[in-house]
């Protein structure tokens, strides 16, 4: 869902406010393959010869399953995947809770932020039931989505108007940004290895077949789902073993 709003600043400048529901994940760089896992594991017994070995998918699959089952995790670290994520700031902060990533995020100290803000769409479950850490998400009642979008729009328009007013008055960007909400969109480069990504996926996806089921906020789950699709494409045998052994990082 995308909604365009128009607001006028105190200086008479027209502001175009954009409300978005999409969260995007793009793989921008990588060095990741199932074979790299096998070669990293084999160096303990084959030495430098391991780098030249390729015994075929059958051997690779069997060894990866053994490593996953026995939780020999370090061979899954010798790779990387770099993603460009566009998401509201509160979702980016969820990503940063996982300290095994490397991050670079756009800075509101150095550039003026665009007036783009997050609102849920019709598929978003708007109510939760249960205790913290054990939520069940349920659909919203009649009018819930309209109320959320209306309330959010009023705040976003007011916040961005004041942000722009301070910038026009010469206030430093790093001070003016303090009025912007955490629903403001941000862009971030995020890099991790397969082992770290599997840990992230185990916590940030809702899969009842997991050894340790999790109930993540939907917005961070969308990020995780986008990353998992690329992980499964680049390292299909590793991903299949991850699925087979309860979606637990080794």
UniProtKB/TrEMBL annotation:
Superkingdom as given in the UniProt entry: Bacteria
GO molecular function terms attached to this record: flavin adenine dinucleotide binding; NADPH binding; thymidylate synthase (FAD) activity; thymidylate synthase activity
Protein name listed in UniProt: Flavin-dependent thymidylate synthase
Pathway assignment: Pyrimidine metabolism; dTTP biosynthesis
Cofactor section: FAD
Keyword Ribonucleoprotein in annotation: no
A Pfam family reported for this protein in Swiss-Prot or TrEMBL: Thy1
Annotated catalytic residues: 204 (involved in ionization of n3 of dump, leading to its activation)
Family annotation (InterPro entries): Thymidylate_synthase_ThyX, Thymidylate_synthase_ThyX_sf
EC number of the protein: 2.1.1.148
Subunit description: Homotetramer.
Binding residues for dUMP: 105-109, 177, 204
The family this protein is said to belong to: Belongs to the thymidylate synthase ThyX family.
Entries under SUPFAM superfamilies matching the protein: Thymidylate synthase-complementing protein Thy1
Record bears the keyword Iron: no
Enzyme class: transferase
């Amino acid at each position: 869902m995308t909604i365009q709003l128009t607001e006028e600043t105190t200086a008479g400048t027209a502001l175009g406010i954009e409300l978005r529901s999409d969260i995007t994940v793009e793989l921008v760089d990588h060095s990741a393959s199932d074979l790299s896992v096998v070669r990293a594991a084999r160096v303990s017994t084959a030495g430098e010869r391991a780098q030249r070995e390729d015994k075929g998918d059958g051997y690779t699959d069997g060894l990866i399953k053994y490593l996953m089952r026995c939780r020999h995790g370090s061979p899954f670290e010798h790779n990387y995947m770099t993603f460009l994520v566009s998401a509201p700031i509160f979702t980016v902060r969820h990503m940063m809770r996982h300290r095994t990533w490397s991050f670079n995020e756009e800075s509101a100290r150095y550039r003026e932020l665009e007036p783009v803000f997050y609102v849920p769409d019709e598929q978003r479950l708007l109510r939760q039931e249960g205790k913290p850490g054990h939520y069940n998400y349920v659909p919203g009642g009649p009018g819930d989505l309209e109320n959320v979008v209306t309330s959010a729009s009023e705040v976003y328009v007011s916040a961005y108007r004041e942000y722009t007013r301070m910038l026009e008055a010469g206030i430093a960007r790093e001070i003016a940004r303090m009025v912007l909400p955490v629903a403001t969109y941000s862009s971030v480069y995020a890099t991790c290895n397969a082992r770290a990504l599997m840990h992230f996926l185990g916590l940030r996806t809702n899969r009842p077949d997991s050894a340790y089921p999790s109930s993540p906020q939907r917005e961070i789950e969308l990020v995780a789902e986008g990353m998992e699709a690329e992980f499964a494409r680049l390292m299909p045998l590793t991903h299949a073993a991850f699925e087979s052994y309860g979606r637990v990082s080794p």
